[in-house]
Amino acid sequence: MLLLLFVLAFAACEWAGWPFLRGPIQRALQQRLQRDVLIGEDFRLSLLGGIRLKSDAFALGAPAWAAARGHAEPLVQAEGVLLALPYATVLAPLRQTPGAEVHVKALEVRRMTASLWRAADGRANWQFTPPDQAPQPGAAPVPTFDRLVVGGGAVSYNDEVIGLQMEVRARTDEGASSGGGGLGIEGEGRYREGVKRFAGAQFKFGITSEGLLPLVTPTEGAPPVPLTLQASAGKAKLDFKGQAKDILRLRGIEGDFSVSGPSLAAVGAPAGVTLPTTAHFEMKGRLSKDGDLYKARIARLAVGTSRLGGDFTYDRRPQVPLLSGELQGESLTLADLGPAFGAPPPDEERPRRAPDGHVLPAREFNIPSLRAMNADVRINLRKLDLGTGLLSDLTPLQGHITLKDGVLNISKLLARASGGEVRGDIGLDSRPAQPRWDIDLQWSGIDLERWIQARNQRAAAEGEKAPGYVSGVLGGEAKFRGVGKSTAAMLGSLDGHAALWVRKGQISHLVVEALGIDIAQALGVLIKGDESLPMHCAVTRFRAKDGVLDTELGVIDTPDTLVLVSGQLSLAKESLALRLNARPKDFSPLSLRSPIRLEGSFADPQVKLEGKSLGLKLLAAAALAAVNPLAAVIPMIDPGEGEDNGCRNALESLRGTTGAPAARKAPAPARR
User: Fold this and answer.
1) Biggest alpha carbon distance in the chain?
2) What is the DSSP letter of 306?
3) What SS3 state is found at 267?
């Protein structure tokens, strides 16, 4: 009988809404939460399956410790409140578990003002602690909601842990002409100083919907609501028009977007996406989100003069997020990649010279960002624009970018160039204190006549197209390793080697005479017109150690002149010490036979003539030093053993350069 009476009494109270509990609940909450609590007169409570409370008004003050720090403003003041809490949340203060999650099943408010504040030690004014327990330092979790709907009001958020300040205002347009009402949210804020990644960044945003868009909704079947979003931070701007199911978790979002800003890296960083540093960009496309899986179809990405696009997926479900997809587009301009390697953007006014006199970029790369995500992206571009009218574009450009646990690889690089190709791999391991770089490139079959656009008008026959100053088939390779956090540091530590050669080549007679400093021959060429000389051999090879490139070999052999290049180039000190020796094979009274020296720094190079008496000795020494490297590199250039092997003939000529050169009948210059 007593049990029946208890059940009937409980049912009656549930039906009435437990009105007599408003006062006791208010006083109990004040005592338990150490803060002022106000519950409105229009009160209704349900205790079945959790606590469900409805009231015309509700206010929750600041905790005593926050008021002592100058934050006495109430945590929340609301009108027209519906609150649903699981018993786990209600009983959490009794368990005295620091950092316990504050879970709210539902919160619907007609109008609300709130002030959320978290101190640098992690204590927050939304933490609820019993009266005999001081708030514990540590990161207090932000409350989680199954459903959150706010008709209008304002929220102030000040988080010293992540350095964020934000003011948000919401309004409900109940009399919208569409009849369905709408929600408008606008706000502004800044990432404060002290958070290096976003220090000083100011932003503002606005969101509008054509219906009462929940901030959080729990059901998968919830209908999407049309949504418009505008946001800006400094020079970065975002516009989105589409639909979504809720705001805080961006569930069911899909629509068209456009975003622009000073750099892809600056815009990607707040979202945790590692993107390269670039010049100003503009991007348009379509975005969708399913849980933690984002998909973007980039219809247009303009970076400087580059025109790109592609399809990408960003998956936040793994412990380390993964970016995958394919980068496509019409063209990529090489200069637009400069900022990624520390150079200023192409559209930025550059100083004539760095204060320390150096020209190689010394700005450090954002190495930590390489560990913020993994990546697997294919490259498929129609062309790589080298940014100069002197050279043809590389068409197409293909490759594969992978980023795994801080190790970046650009592999399977392939670029076509005037009948030839460039292949290779580039790697960066960011895990060591000094990141390690690996570069392995090969190029072959490049037709210089087609690739080099400069034309020799003096050698043009009447009615025919002018030939180039140099022609032939270019090949070579480069293998280097280095360490460093900037382009200057990496180049200044290079170890490895590089070689390049030209087969079946020809070169302007005027250029050859200029290299030999033969005034008489050069004047004759200018008077009667230029003509191309065959290059029996053209090859150079460098060896790098600690950023210093030593010329092991530098030979250009024509019927007219033997040219030798020697010396070194220091990438570490940005200095030059190169010497060019030319030995004309014909007699000329005005031939100086003096080596040309290229000296000085990268910022201030100097060209000088060596003394004539010293020139012959230097030529003999350079020829002797070039014999063994040339013998070693010949099989790479032309593995054949036929008689018409220019570099083998040049090798014999070098062996005799210290005395009288071997007699050899030079073929007549070929006219073009």
Assistant:
1) 134
2) E
3) helix
